[in-house]
Design goal:
Helix content: 25-40%
Structural class: alpha+beta
Strand content: 15-25%
CATH topology: 2,3-Dihydroxybiphenyl 1,2-Dioxygenase, domain 1
Bound molecules: nickel (II) ion
CATH class: Alpha Beta
Oligomer: single chain
Number of domains: 1
Mean pLDDT: 94
Largest sheet: 7 strands, mixed
């Protein structure tokens, strides 16, 4: 059995290499004497019959994780599950979503099958699939635009493929930052732009989870016939609160997650 920590190391090395802000934000917190604890990561996929959300979950399940929550985002045509490690409470949670292809317009389904699924030569083993990038090769800019018009999620996934969409700093474990507003102020003072859809803070103490996120870094993507800047991954910040039963809330809030998804929206980052 592969240790689950190895999965996060591989995902983090890809994530921090691709997104220049990640290391800088980590350094910023470390320079204040903080140790960073990762609350959760998020992975994205299409719902193909040959591989889907459950395929990405496989290496985590083998590493001691159990499914703990189910989510549905009707407007975005997404379903998601979240996983927690059974024994290690400090292990990052894993949030995996999938785009329900059959719910998309027929012409978009055809594009996804022709330009994505049919171009995959081989699906790697699950522990490699989670950070395999776009298995369908160099993206085509016109295909990207067609997907973008219907689903920002589909367009992002087409360009970046399988990799961590974000990591999350758990504010509860920071020593000098006692609430999410302090964290947001600190990020803004240091020049970072936050996702403001639905307000900077998603959720509340009453829903036991407060979240905020940076806007994704725009990186230069090499398409078949041109280069173009596309929002890549973002950093999330989460503060978890104690429920009436005395336990720390470990789940996710559908309404907040729906807004956090917008951190890779090109319109917001233009
Ligand atoms: Ni998240």
């Amino acid at each position: 059995m592969r240790h689950y920590k190895h999965l996060f190391e591989q995902l983090y090395s890809d994530y921090s290499r691709l997104n220049p802000s990640v290391k800088k934000i980590n350094e910023l917190f470390k320079s204040c004497g903080e140790t960073i604890v990762n609350d959760h990561i998020a992975l994205r996929t299409f719902s193909f019959s040959s591989f889907n959300l459950d395929s990405l979950a496989k290496p985590f399940l083998e590493g001691g994780y159990k499914v703990k929550g189910f989510y549905r985002f009707n407007e975005k045509k997404l379903t998601a599950k979240h996983y927690e490690h059974e024994k290690d409470a400090l292990a990052p949670k894993v949030f995996i979503s999938q785009l329900e292809i059959k719910e998309l317009p027929k012409e978009i389904q055809v594009i996804i099958y022709n330009e994505i699924l049919n171009r995959i030569k081989q699906v790697p083993a699950a522990h490699n699939l989670i950070h395999a990038g776009p298995l369908w090769g160099t993206p085509d800019y016109n295909v990207y635009l067609k997907l973008l018009a219907i689903s920002e999620y589909a367009a992002w996934l087409y360009v970046f493929g399988f990799r961590a969409n974000h990591f999350t700093i758990l504010i509860n474990h920071l020593r000098h930052f006692t609430d999410i507003t302090m964290v947001n102020q600190f990020l803004k003072q240091n020049g970072y732009v936050l996702n403001t859809i639905g307000g900077e803070i998603k959720g509340s103490k009453e829903t036991y989870l407060e979240q905020s996120s940076t806007l994704a870094d725009k990186i230069e993507v090499e398409f078949k016939d041109r280069k173009h800047l596309v929002p890549c991954c973002y950093y999330e910040f989460a503060m978890r609160h104690v429920m009436p039963n005395g336990k720390l809330y470990t789940g996710f809030n559908t309404d907040s997650a729906n807004k956090i998804f917008e951190s890779t929206n090109t319109n917001q980052t233009d």
